[in-house]
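We modelled the chain as a single entity of 356 amino acids. Its sequence is:
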Amino acid sequence: MPASLPTLRTPINPLTAGQLPRFTQLALLVVSVVLSAAALSLVGSGGIGAVVVTGTLLFLLVSFILSANVEGIRRAKDRLAAHTVTGFFLLALAPLISLAWEVLASGVARFDFRFFAYSMRNVIGEGGGAAHAIWGTLIITGMATLFSVPIGLLTAVYLVEYGARHKLASAIRFFVDVMTGIPSIVAGLFAYTLFAVFLGPGTKVGVAGAVALTVLMIPTVVRSTEEMLRLVPNELREASYALGVPKWRTILRVVLPTSLAGILTGVVLAIARIIGETAPLLVTAGITSSLNANPFSEPMATLPVFVYYQYVTPGIPAEPYIARAWAGALTLILIVMLLNLAGRLIAWKFAPKPGR
């Protein structure tokens, strides 16, 4: 009889030797939180924060030990890393959700037609609205966009297309980075001083606020546009040059259209970054209770400043002022949200499509 062949044993892969049931992690989390709440309540420290922290630590410990015994140490470490990252994500998300909920719950009471249709002229106590502040925000932000986008766009074109080997480009990038980090109040003081030189001390007009916001907006536009222009393949430029197209027309007809989606998205995000600024507008545009649509004359109210004054200088009773402040904050959040949605829509609409 032929000798029996030795049986070949398939090596056991430690990564797939075992696997925890699908809902084990969720069950462990629930049990850990319940046990932590019970234990802390016995010692009189049953606060929500303490329960969450203690329950999370207990869950991580038990989950690691259980996974290490069933699935192996490598899979256990992988689960521990995934749970840790997820926990920090939820920790970062919690303040945002809490803020959104608080603003929505407190601001919806005055989120009515009167709030958007009336100003605060001759209004004391209840009633009135923020129409003058909303229009002021739109006018000043629009002027700041009109000032900063051409400057930022042309600066980025110079940095990418013309100044790649010049020392001036390095100096410009350095100062742009410095401007990115300056406090907003510094931009406000700069604009206030500039207009005080020409129009006299104490001058507060809407265009001064627009200049202050322009100083804050230009670095964002420059940096976002520069990055988008660098993403344009050099092959497109070289093909255009090979056809005899001059450089300025190549930039205008090839480079800018290819990066248009990213440029517009960066501009929209820059607008969302400055629309909620308060400090520079306090010292440049001021506040008024009436609608002023002329940015070159008299103070002009804006939503951030309106919210600030409604909250810090309430009348008696204070409830109507606080309600208007919350409604103004909710309006600002909705405007920023709409701007972000517009940025995503623009990126989708103008992004280069395959086959073009």
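As a brief sanity check on the tokenised model: The radius of gyration is 29 Å. The chain has a mean pLDDT of 85.
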